[in-house]
Every structure is written in C-alpha cells, then in structure tokens.
Specification:
This protein has 96 residues and is of the alpha+beta class. 23% of the residues lie in helices and 34% in strands. The N and C termini lie far apart (38 Å). Pfam families: SoxD.
Amino acid sequence: MRIACPHCGTRGLDEFAYLGDATVVRPDPSAENAETAFVEYVYLRDNPAGRHRELWSHALGCQSWLVVTRDVRTHAIESVENARDVATARDQGAGQ
C-alpha cells in the first residue's frame, strides 16, 4: 500500500505508523456520564468492512498526522488529509 502524503508525495507504507480510528472523539470528563463514556471510548470500537477513516503518522518522513480514508477490504485509498484540517473542520461544525 502507498500513501500520498500531502507534504512529501506518495510514499510506501513502511514510512507510516497506524494510530487508530480517526472518527472517535474523546469524551468530556466533566459530563454527567463521563465514566461510562470513557469506558466506551477506550474499549468499544467498531470493526467496519468497507470505507473507514484512520489516523496515520508519517513517522519516517515529515512527521505529519494524517487522516486516511480507505476501504479496509481492498486497501484502496480514497483520500488523505491533514489531521489538523479535519479537526478544525469538525470543531467549526460543532460550534454552529
């Protein structure tokens, strides 16, 4: 599998480190149900077949954090985005 880093260009998988599901959001520790929310956040994860958004680091390159959208059945990559841009867009959407 090859990942198209937005900064370095297309590179082999061996330059990247998989960091997990990019769709989970850390719960608010001051929420009323914080304990239950943190248990679910840490231990309960989906294992989808198909399109999935994943967090990757270009560990042996520019050190960027990336959100890679790919089909986990075929490893076909649909898009690669800077994780900061994804988080900023998510935060701006939540504030509306």
